Amino acid sequence: xxxxxxxxxxxxxxxxxxxxxxxxxxxxxxxxxxxxxxxxxxxxxxxxxxxxxxxxxxxxxxxxxxxxxxxxxxxxxxxxxxxxxxxxxxxxxxxxxxxxxxxxxxxxxxxxxxxxxxxxxxxxxxxxxxxxxxxxxxxxxxxxxxxxxxxxxxxxxxxxxxxxxxxxxxxxxxxxxxxxxxxxxxxxxxxxxxxxx
Length: 197
Ligand SMILES: [Zn+2]
Hints:
Layout: E1 5-6, E2 15-22, H1 28-37, E3 42-45, H2 47-50, E4 68-69, H3 82-100, E5 106-107, H4 116-124, E6 129-131, E7 135-137, E8 142-144, E9 156-160, H5 172-185, E10 189-191
Parallel strand pairs: 1-6, 2-3, 2-9, 2-10, 3-4, 5-6, 7-9
Antiparallel strand pairs: 7-8
Helix pairs in contact: 3-4
Residues 21-22, 70, 74, 110 line the site of zinc ion (ZN).
């Protein structure tokens, strides 16, 4: 009785889904950029990364279905027992509900690491799915899991709230512009993940 684990959505449409993780970088220009572009994305937030400024993420909630769960402290869940995993996941459900008003539906396990205890904990914390990814955005390049190095319909893409100190001087908006260019070049558009689950 655990939640399903997904890395893509079955579809024939040329759409992909954007996800941004953690929450360390809080660049106001990113909020402006996404407002102007009106591109949907899903945020998976870790309390340890966002607690200095919960308010930054409030205007970004509208781009997805509220905020989603990326644990309290970003541990490798595989190294934790069942009850410790439950604390990390349910604890973040409670925090996010208190700060942002919505109860998260989706869990992204830190580093993409999970086991059967994670699936069971997620279910008992009220989550619907564990969401992994098919591509991850670096600074200018996309890292593909598949050998053909191409986007496929329904792929979920991982990016992070990262700033110049982690991106070798590149800002989060520049990284996001690079990411959107990779998507557009391959003829894909971005859809809202929560609408397809
Ligand atoms: Zn993370």
